[in-house]
Amino acid sequence: MYAKLIAAAAIGALLSTSAFAQTSTQNASAKGEWQSSKLIHMNVYNAQNEKIGDIKELMLDKSGKVEDVVIGVGGFIGMGEHDVAIKFDRLKWSDSATTTGSGQPASQSKNADRNYPDHAVLNATKDQLKAMPNFQYSK
Question: Which of 4, 7, 31, 94 has its CA 20 to 30 A from that of 134?
Answer without folding.
Answer: 94
